[in-house]
Write a structure and sequence with these properties.
alpha/beta; 12 helices; three-stranded mixed sheet; 2-enoyl-CoA Hydratase, Chain A, domain 1; Lyase 2-enoyl-coa Hydratase, Chain  A, domain 2; 48% helix
Length: 266
């Protein structure tokens, strides 16, 4: 079967497209979650990758779970409560942990509806930009279920508790303009310009030494749950490592020489 992710490489930037357009890129099999987990591991190991753009093939970003399978108690949603609990823990919950641990900065280019787990997937990214055709909903309660993939942890950290509560408890959909007002996305473009803008942002990230952006991302992530004193300790350790990289030396020398740096991921 065709991979769930369609992956392209553009120098230090990788583009990954969820590739089930006929299913609106729903995450409907445990194999999809395992593929995303394995892909994240590969990117972290490859220090030549400095940015990832995540988007959807076709008209949707990600429609979340397969509602037909929910109704039929099939696929990811089959089994008794204990089995279903374990299926979540060993299935779709692989994705938030994999993307949280991914060192490479991630830009979500939300090209269309991001619904339920699809919205949560966007929230796992570091930067979100949206097409003017994008739609967003934390829609679980509309189906009588709850965010099962970490949305209750992710969404408040992106939009704040008040707006996350509104989105989660009503399940109602918002458009790209409202998402921008909520701070869910940082930019809205036309659908035609979305990928060009995403690649431009990715290029701006990839123009910097990869070790610096990877460690800076980790500090941002850890800082959400860490007191200031241990964060400062971690920052000092990372800074000591950064000062002894060849790319740091090259960046400083290029600055002094007033020329473009040439980084070698070392």
């Amino acid at each position: 079967m065709e991979p769930f992710l369609k992956v392209e490489r553009h120098g230090p930037v990788v583009v990954a497209k969820l590739n089930r357009p006929e299913q609106r890129n729903a995450i409907s099999e445990t194999a999809h979650s395992e593929e995303i987990r394995d892909f994240c591991g590969e990117l972290t190991r490859d220090t030549s990758v400095r940015a990832l753009v995540l988007t959807g093939e076709g008209k949707a970003f990600c429609a979340g779970g397969n509602v037909k399978d929910m109704g039929n108690k099939a696929g990811m949603f089959a089994g008794a409560p204990y089995a279903l609990r374990n299926a979540y823990r060993t299935g779709i919950q692989l994705i938030p942990t994999a993307l949280y641990d991914l060192e490479v900065p991630v830009i979500a280019a939300v090209n269309g509806p991001a619904i339920g787990a699809g919205l949560d997937l966007a929230c796992m990214s570091d930067i979100r930009i949206a097409s003017d055709k994008a739609l967003f909903a934390e829609s679980f309660v509309k189906l009588g279920i709850v965010p099962g993939d970490g949305g209750a942890w992710l969404l408040p950290r992106v939009v704040g508790m008040a707006r996350a509560s509104q989105m989660t408890l009503t399940g109602e959909m918002i458009d790209a303009a409202k998402a921008l007002e909520f701070g869910l996305v940082s930019e809205v473009t036309t659908s035609e310009a979305l990928m060009d803008r995403a690649m431009e942002l990715a290029g701006s990230i990839a123009a910097n030494p990869g070790h610096a952006t990877r460690m800076a991302k980790r500090l941002l992530r850890e800082g959400q749950d860490m007191k200031l004193a241990p964060l400062l300790e971690l920052s000092a350790a990372y800074q000591a490592l950064a000062h002894h990289t060849e790319d740091h030396h090259e960046a400083v020398q290029a600055f002094l020489d007033k020329r473009a740096p040439e980084f070698r991921d070392q």
